[in-house]
Design goal:
There is one protein chain. A hairpin with an 8-residue loop joins strand 7 and strand 8. The chain is globular, with a radius of gyration of 19 Å. The protein has an eight-stranded antiparallel beta barrel with strand order 1-2-3-4-5-6-7-8. The chain is built from two helices and eight strands; from the N terminus they run H-H-E-E-E-E-E-E-E-E. Helix content is 22%, strand content 44%. The chain is of the alpha+beta class and 111 residues long. It has one domain: Lipocalin, CATH 2.40.128.640. The longest helix has 19 residues.
């Protein structure tokens, strides 16, 4: 092995590690911010500390959120707990509640 191979391997490992950490933000960080319902007036704002504020101009509710896994969002507000199926990208959020609790809602990122 040449002496040039070792620094190259080290560089490749560092780049791989940085990309893995930077690209693997997970839903906990990716969801933080304010979201506006695409076909409605509702907003949802997720904070880094695990709190959430949701509602519209007439009323709002505060609660907490967590991720039981990468495909589900658990929201606890007032005395209700709802686990949504979640699809999340940098600009779009789709929440699907259990069938008996309503319809799927799509949101776009406001900030």
């Amino acid at each position: 092995m040449t002496s040039n191979a070792t620094p190259l391997r080290f560089f490749v490992l560092v780049v791989f590690f940085v990309c893995t950490v930077a690209c693997n933000r997970g839903p906990q960080k990716a969801i933080v911010g304010k979201w506006q319902e695409v076909d409605g007036t509702r907003t949802v704002e997720f904070f880094p500390d695990g709190t959430v504020i949701m509602g519209d101009s007439a009323r709002q509710a505060a609660g907490t959120y967590s991720f039981p896994d990468s495909r589900h969002l658990k929201v606890v507000a007032a005395m209700d707990t709802i686990v949504f199926d979640i699809v999340l990208s940098s600009k779009a959020l789709v929440l699907t509640p259990p069938t008996q609790l309503g319809r799927q809602r799509s949101f776009k990122r406001v900030n």
